[in-house]
Amino acid sequence: MSNAPLRIGFIGAGGNTRLRHLPEFAAIPGVELTAVANRSAASSEAVAREFRIRRVDTDWRAVVGAPDIDAVCIGTWPYLHAEITIAALAAGKHVLTEARMARNAAEAEAMLAASRAAPSLVAQIVPAPFTFNFDAEIRRRLDAGELGELSEVEVVHTHGALADAAAPITWRQRADLSGHNLMTLGIHYEALLRWLDDDAEVLAARGTIYTPERPDANGVMRRVDIPDSADVLGRFPRTGASLRMHLSGVETTRPRNEIRLNGTLAGLRLDLSTGTLWHTPRGGSEQPVPVASTGDGWRVEADFVASIREGRPVTLTDFETGLRYMRFTDAVWAALSA
Hints:
Low-confidence stretches: none
Order of helices and strands: EHEHEHEHEHEHEHHEEEEEEEEEHH
Shape: globular
Mean pLDDT: 96
Largest sheet: 8 strands, mixed
Helix content: 25-40%
CATH topology of the largest domain: Dihydrodipicolinate Reductase, domain 2
Structural class: alpha/beta
CATH superfamily of the largest domain: Dihydrodipicolinate Reductase, domain 2
Strand order of the largest sheet: 8-11-12-7-13-14-15-16
């Protein structure tokens, strides 16, 4: 397989597909951008011209069923991830699907079952990228016991994108398109899974929708299903550490994006807004942690191709991990309704 062309079909060509997947795949020797099916023929044709994709298909099923396609890259909104993934694996295609994995854990379980039924095929989810350059260092310090016993984990991510009540609704605010995915809940939780090897129990959650209806692209008012702001309380059973998460799209002061790990001997603070990791010994002052930079750490497409050609196991991110963050997402969703 390593010497044969790898022919990829693209289903959905949104922002991340155009920004990352298409140019990164095009730069890999022996990879062919064979077909694209976007939401409209016009948008498909525009993407095909820009990235020199050989063929435009009007239906994603044509891409999945095409004999000249070896792998499928799914860049749609979450509501189609499970259906397309399951169909593609059944058709003998490798799959790279955009995060979030699915709308809910039931869909994620069906995707995992389909991948296990086709063990010769690569099934990968686009990983949460924010912590790429810090994952190894954080994991090393935790494994070495430098923090002592972990007591608290805190995640805060706020911005002001939802503060304008007149702004149009997006797919991220519609449960029919996004499912139980709540802002960046799953993305940040996925990073915690890389460091802690522990699945958090959800103890309580509270969410608020400040603007119940917003106009869609056609000016039609639609109900907002997903909170504009949410707080989650949980616990990691293995360590006993508490989990606190605050996510908000209505921050009108300075945005925040950070993760704090507090232990009995020291703490780590990852400031994702500045790309800086800080270490504070108990009773001491906060100091920056030197971390070797590898650019932005993005290797998603190269890793996917290597898994296909060389049989490398998928680590970022496999379907098992995706199901874990979808189960957490479902538990938060249930707690919001409790």
